[in-house]
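Example record

One chain of 195 residues, shown exactly as stored in the release files.
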Amino acid sequence: MTGPLTISLSFQAGPRHMSHHNWDISTLTLQLRTARKQWREARKRDPLTTGREFPSLTALQEISRSISAAPFPMRLGPEDLNPESEDHYIGYTLGRALDKLLEQARLELTLSGPSDTASVDKKATELIKAFASRLPELRTILDSDAEAAFRGDPAARSVDEVLLCYPGIRASSITAWPTPCSPLDFRCWPVSSPK
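Predicted structure tokens for this chain:
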């Protein structure tokens, strides 16, 4: 390679994406780029030099799904998971999720105010380690919540049904996880189960 890699994006409707409407995507894309550029210039923000400044909602949703599934691997993990590989799945899933959460924590802490990179890294690492250490306790709390919901609902057929199908328990399994990160208080942590 002799120069920087340039990627050209082309939006063309193929057979799978045929539309009977002319949405004029090229013009809309250009207009949105112009609006972004004007906003960034007015605020002296250049993403080419500063990179991503805010945590990613998409990343936090993925992290939330992974962290919710790891404690309940045979219920919320992948369909092809078997009991012999549970520990491997949990280790791999949590390792990736916590690494990604650390990246998002760094962004969130950087938003909180000016600080040097070493301080941000240290604080983010401390917060994520404290969070991770509470996962077994949170698993126990969610088990208790699911059991209580099962006992309180005569129509429930099993605790597994409660965990998998009851919106309140599913929401708890998503929103309970960031509690130990409250000093971090992600502004865009997903508060409902992502689709």
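Notes: The two ends are 41 Å apart (CA to CA).
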